[in-house]
Amino acid sequence: MGLSRIPFVSPAEHTGEIMSNIKFVVRVSHTGTRAHAYVQRIGKIPFQMTTNRKLALIMGKLTAEDAAKAIQTARCVPELMPVHVNA
Fold first, then answer.
1. CB atoms within 10 A of CB 13
2. Average confidence score pLDDT of the chain
3. Tens digit of pLDDT for each residue in 12-21?
4. Which residue has the higher pLDDT, 14 or 36?
5. Which domain holds residue 47?
6. DSSP state, 56?
């Protein structure tokens, strides 16, 4: 007796959930301060920062990596924070 073939159903389709994409925000830690800042807007110079995560700019991975490299200094330590966005 052979095994019957069951079509692949993704977990999101199975449970009826909305598929989500992963985007990123750039969180910056400044030495000497406890509060983290997030990139709010990318302009020419300097980047506009905010301490409110809800106002942070949500961007793709390549853009976030470029922003993190541009901000990085001896006193600023940027890191990418993943954010789930409904698609």
1. 10
2. 80
3. 555 555 556 8
4. 36
5. 32-77
6. S
Evaluate whether residue 8 is within a structural domain: no
Reference 82, options 22, 20, 18; nearest CA is 22
43 within some domain: yes
CB atoms under 10 Å from CB of 66, counted, come to 14
How many domains does the chain contain in total? 1
Number of residues that this document lists for the chain: 87
**Residue 17, domain member (yes or no):** no
- What does the pLDDT look like over 67-79, one tens digit per residue? 899 888 878 889 9
Strand, helix or coil at 18? Answer: coil
Give the confidence band of 44 by pLDDT, cuts at 50, 70, 90.
confident
> Both tokens of residue 78?
């940027």
Distance CA 84, CA 86 (A): 7
Q: What is the token pair recorded at 16?
A: 């009826």
Helix (H) or strand (E) holding 84: strand 76-86
Residue 65 in domain: yes
